């Protein structure tokens, strides 16, 4: 039986997280491969608003999810906003994304979240298959308004 562990990530996890962030960016942008950027991983892990969990498979960090704890204006409660979720291709089909979402649901129960919500890229077909199995579609539609795409 394979060992899976889901845990909150901290600054000490930046060296293992950096290559996953680079792979995720490559998968979404389909451009030249990005180099792992440990400084950027440290910034994400130290962000005052974002929180990061990781999925370890057989002792190796192979996935991550970035989420936020936000006010939910309609109910007056809090809500979880899953912003990014990624599992390395070599570790897929082992239930890691499902386990990270289950972890977030449990965390949401402890925090009193009204719901956990997320959006995904329209072309993310394998992930959408899982989401359709475990959640109901939202009545929301996603849009992007570019502000500064220079990367500065």
Could you characterize what this model shows?
- The structure is a single chain.
- The chain is α+β, with helices and mostly antiparallel strands and 152 residues long.
- The protein has one domain: Gcn5-related N-acetyltransferase (GNAT) (Aminopeptidase).
- It contains four helices and five strands.
- Strands 1-2-3-4-5 form a five-stranded mixed beta sheet, sandwiched between helices.
- β4 (77-87), α3 (96-111) and β5 form a beta-alpha-beta unit.
- α1 (14-29) crosses α2 (38-45).
- It is globular and about 40 Å long.
- The mean pLDDT is 88.
- Keywords: Acyltransferase, Transferase.
Defining key terms:
single chain, 152 residues, alpha+beta, Aminopeptidase, 5-stranded mixed beta sheet
Structure in a nutshell:
By secondary structure, the chain is of the alpha+beta class.
Kindly state the number of beta strands. 5
By CATH, the superfamily comes out as Gcn5-related N-acetyltransferase (GNAT)
- Low-confidence spans: none
Distance between the termini: 45 Å
What order do the strands of the largest sheet run in, or round the barrel if closed? Answer: 1-2-3-4-5
Name of the CATH class: Alpha Beta
CATH topology: Aminopeptidase
Domain count, please report it.
Answer: 1
Strand-residue proportion: 25-35%
From the coordinates shown, what is the CATH architecture?
3-Layer(aba) Sandwich
Helix vs. strand class? alpha+beta
* DSSP summary: helix tally: 4
Mean pLDDT: 88
Please compute the radius of gyration using only Cα atoms: 16 Å
């Amino acid at each position: 039986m394979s060992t899976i562990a889901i845990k909150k990530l901290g600054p000490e996890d930046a060296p293992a997280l950096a290559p996953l962030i680079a792979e995720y960016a490559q998968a979404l942008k389909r451009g030249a491969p990005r180099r792992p950027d440990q400084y950027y991983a440290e910034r994400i892990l130290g962000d005052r608003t974002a929180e990061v969990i990781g999925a370890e498979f057989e002792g190796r960090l192979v996935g991550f999810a970035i989420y936020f704890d936000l006010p939910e204006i309609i109910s007056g409660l809090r809500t979880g906003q899953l912003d990014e979720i990624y599992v390395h291709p070599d570790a897929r089909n082992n239930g890691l994304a499902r386990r990270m979402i289950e972890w977030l649901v449990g965390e949401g129960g402890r925090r009193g979240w009204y719901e956990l919500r997320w959006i995904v890229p329209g072309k993310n077909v394998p992930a959408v298959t899982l989401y359709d199995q475990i959640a109901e579609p939202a009545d929301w539609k996603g849009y992007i308004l570019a502000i500064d795409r220079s990367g500065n």
